[in-house]
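JOB MANIFEST
job_type = single_chain_structure
chain_count = 1
residues = 122
[input]
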Amino acid sequence: MARKPSEPALPPDVTRLRAEMDRLNARLAADVQARARLALEIARAKAAHGLAAADPKREQTMLRRVLDEAPAGFERCDLARIFKTIFVVSRELVVASAEPAAGRSSPCEPPRAKTGRKRSRR
């Protein structure tokens, strides 16, 4: 985002640190997306073997391992909250992949009303 002419230039260390944050955000997003793809692969493999999609014991084991191995930074409870959210969204992704799309263009959008007519734009 370009700065406004009336705003003073940021100190070089702030600019450098922000660039590093941007790189980490991109890497984090890529890793979360890779995790989502893997969750879908695991769900397909489990379905092929007649296993239940959800495994709360496995989630607890993964969470405990993440918390035990995490370097300093976030408090344990905050890191747990982040990973529990990832687990919930992953389960929702797996469920959504097994069901019809129900008229959604994105799982983050509410279903569109099906009227059978196109709206005219005026």
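[summary]
The radius of gyration is 21 Å.
The helical segments are 12-48, 56-69, 76-98.
exit_status = 0
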